[in-house]
Amino acid sequence: VWLKEASQWMPLGSAMSKTWPSLPEGWHLSLADSMERVLESQLAWTVEAMAPLPPGVAANQALRENLFALAVCIDARIPLLIVGKPGSSKSLAMQIVRDRLHRETKSSALRAAR
Protein backbone atom coordinates (compact mmCIF):
# COMPACT_ATOMS: atom_id res chain seq x y z
CA VAL A 1 0.00 0.00 0.00
CA TRP A 2 1.41 3.36 -1.03
CA LEU A 3 0.43 6.79 0.23
CA LYS A 4 0.95 10.11 -1.47
CA GLU A 5 2.52 12.67 0.80
CA ALA A 6 3.95 16.03 -0.28
CA SER A 7 3.57 15.12 -3.97
CA GLN A 8 5.60 11.92 -3.65
CA TRP A 9 4.53 8.31 -3.24
CA MET A 10 5.96 6.30 -0.37
CA PRO A 11 5.28 2.93 1.26
CA LEU A 12 2.80 2.93 4.14
CA GLY A 13 5.51 2.08 6.69
CA SER A 14 7.69 5.01 5.59
CA ALA A 15 4.74 7.39 5.67
CA MET A 16 3.83 6.25 9.19
CA SER A 17 7.40 6.64 10.49
CA LYS A 18 7.55 10.13 8.99
CA THR A 19 4.17 11.07 10.45
CA TRP A 20 4.79 9.58 13.90
CA PRO A 21 8.57 9.71 14.47
CA SER A 22 8.18 9.17 18.22
CA LEU A 23 6.86 5.60 17.81
CA PRO A 24 9.20 2.87 19.07
CA GLU A 25 11.60 1.51 16.44
CA GLY A 26 9.95 -1.06 14.21
CA TRP A 27 6.48 -0.52 15.64
CA HIS A 28 5.29 1.47 12.63
CA LEU A 29 6.43 -1.35 10.32
CA SER A 30 4.37 -3.98 12.15
CA LEU A 31 1.34 -1.68 12.22
CA ALA A 32 1.77 -0.92 8.52
CA ASP A 33 2.08 -4.65 7.80
CA SER A 34 -1.13 -5.47 9.64
CA MET A 35 -2.98 -2.60 7.94
CA GLU A 36 -1.78 -3.82 4.54
CA ARG A 37 -2.96 -7.36 5.33
CA VAL A 38 -6.41 -6.08 6.32
CA LEU A 39 -6.68 -3.97 3.16
CA GLU A 40 -5.50 -6.83 0.93
CA SER A 41 -7.98 -9.24 2.51
CA GLN A 42 -10.81 -6.75 2.00
CA LEU A 43 -9.78 -6.20 -1.62
CA ALA A 44 -9.75 -9.97 -2.15
CA TRP A 45 -13.15 -10.40 -0.47
CA THR A 46 -14.64 -7.67 -2.67
CA VAL A 47 -13.42 -9.40 -5.83
CA GLU A 48 -14.77 -12.75 -4.58
CA ALA A 49 -18.12 -11.12 -3.77
CA MET A 50 -18.29 -9.72 -7.30
CA ALA A 51 -17.54 -13.14 -8.84
CA PRO A 52 -17.83 -14.34 -11.46
CA LEU A 53 -15.94 -11.68 -13.37
CA PRO A 54 -16.74 -11.37 -17.07
CA PRO A 55 -14.82 -13.78 -19.32
CA GLY A 56 -11.30 -12.63 -20.08
CA VAL A 57 -11.14 -10.16 -17.19
CA ALA A 58 -8.23 -10.44 -14.76
CA ALA A 59 -8.57 -9.11 -11.23
CA ASN A 60 -5.54 -6.82 -11.38
CA GLN A 61 -4.71 -4.29 -8.67
CA ALA A 62 -6.48 -1.38 -10.39
CA LEU A 63 -9.71 -3.35 -10.82
CA ARG A 64 -9.56 -4.63 -7.23
CA GLU A 65 -9.08 -1.12 -5.83
CA ASN A 66 -11.84 0.35 -8.00
CA LEU A 67 -14.30 -2.41 -7.04
CA PHE A 68 -13.49 -1.91 -3.35
CA ALA A 69 -13.86 1.89 -3.52
CA LEU A 70 -17.16 1.61 -5.38
CA ALA A 71 -18.58 -1.01 -3.00
CA VAL A 72 -17.61 0.95 0.12
CA CYS A 73 -18.89 4.28 -1.20
CA ILE A 74 -22.16 2.82 -2.48
CA ASP A 75 -22.77 1.10 0.86
CA ALA A 76 -21.96 4.29 2.81
CA ARG A 77 -23.80 6.50 0.28
CA ILE A 78 -20.70 8.61 -0.27
CA PRO A 79 -20.22 10.25 -3.68
CA LEU A 80 -17.17 8.96 -5.51
CA LEU A 81 -15.22 10.14 -8.54
CA ILE A 82 -12.81 7.59 -9.94
CA VAL A 83 -10.17 9.16 -12.16
CA GLY A 84 -7.26 7.56 -13.91
CA LYS A 85 -5.56 6.80 -17.15
CA PRO A 86 -7.47 5.13 -19.97
CA GLY A 87 -7.61 1.38 -19.48
CA SER A 88 -7.35 1.46 -15.69
CA SER A 89 -10.63 -0.46 -15.19
CA LYS A 90 -12.82 2.49 -14.17
CA SER A 91 -15.79 1.72 -16.43
CA LEU A 92 -15.30 -2.03 -16.09
CA ALA A 93 -15.45 -1.79 -12.29
CA MET A 94 -18.66 0.25 -12.48
CA GLN A 95 -20.26 -2.27 -14.86
CA ILE A 96 -19.31 -5.19 -12.62
CA VAL A 97 -20.65 -3.49 -9.48
CA ARG A 98 -23.84 -2.45 -11.27
CA ASP A 99 -24.42 -6.01 -12.50
CA ARG A 100 -23.70 -7.58 -9.10
CA LEU A 101 -26.00 -5.20 -7.25
CA HIS A 102 -28.85 -5.76 -9.69
CA ARG A 103 -31.55 -7.84 -8.00
CA GLU A 104 -31.56 -10.72 -10.51
CA THR A 105 -27.77 -11.09 -10.63
CA LYS A 106 -26.86 -10.14 -7.06
CA SER A 107 -24.09 -12.35 -5.74
CA SER A 108 -24.76 -14.53 -2.71
CA ALA A 109 -21.75 -13.04 -0.86
CA LEU A 110 -23.24 -9.56 -1.17
CA ARG A 111 -26.64 -10.80 -0.01
CA ALA A 112 -25.03 -12.36 3.07
CA ALA A 113 -23.07 -9.18 3.82
CA ARG A 114 -26.22 -7.16 4.44
Automatic annotation (TrEMBL):
Lineage: superkingdom: Eukaryota
InterPro entries given in the database record: RNF213
A GO MF term: ATP hydrolysis activity
Protein's recorded name: Uncharacterized protein
Source organism per UniProt: Alexandrium monilatum
